[in-house]
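Would you mind giving me a polypeptide sequence along with per-residue structure tokens?
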Amino acid sequence: MSQKIVGMISGYKGIEQRDWLWKQSPHAFGVWGNIQMIATAPEPDFLLMYQFDFPRPSKPSPWWKSWRQKRSTPKPDIPSLLRNVPKERIIYLLREPPLEEVVPRNKYNYQAASQYCGYISGPDKYAPDPNYMPAIWYVNSSFRELNEMEPPAKNRPCSWITSGIDRTENHRRRLAFLQLLRDKNLDFDLYGRGLPSSSKGFGSVQNKWHAMAPYYYNLSIENYADNELYVSEKLWDALLAWCLPIYYGGSAADKILPPGSFLRLPSMDEKGLEFVREVTSSLDAWHEAKEAIAEARQIILHELNLLAWLSNFVEKIS
């Protein structure tokens, strides 16, 4: 079978580059088996709609506000975005968690996608094909480096990369746990954007590797932990950096990663605080998990990888 070109459009800002996802392949130019990922390809064989929000119908405005409608940004013409790819070759993947606040939007996206896409999936029960999201990661090392490396030099116990976003109840619970760790003087290094000054964070990083690789443990706390499908790059990034994740999330991770490759944070309260304190007080847990971490890294790189998923999808329907 000849190699197929996969294009991409997304609702995420800042990933319109031609080389999107290329770092997740050992080969040049985004090649993985039977596919080549070229996000901006004008006439691809397949098209990935990745966390794409379909425009929602506008509510009619009163006549005295109608002048504002003329000045608003025009909504995209969806067929013009699809690059003449037939419906059966258009893939729609939502990857954000089904927080209560966004479920109505997700439902609308799934419904709208059914008009244009042959395959529609997301990590929630509302998707036509509910499933976990294939892996992408945000440590800026090449596939070959990640695949072949031994554990890097580690000299600090624990890090956490998070943000100060507080727009949902889940976000606010995470920030409250962060404050508890600080109030109780837990020894960990904090990175991320928009964090409150009381959190004593070091600010954001351009490459997550720098905030993970020198650490034995990483606090990997999801925005959402209430179903059996959602799991995010918080785990992939930590494991690829050879950290032992202290993970708070749903049960999806238990189904797709080997036992012992991460530890479960029992709760985001005093009990959780004491668990983290005990684990990070020594390096025993990391050394015991080293082989499981190595196995998990290979699963992430070769099986959960979004490029591997796309290659398998193309093979099935070509």
Q: What stands out?
A: The mean pLDDT is 94. Residues 284-304 form the longest helix (21 residues).
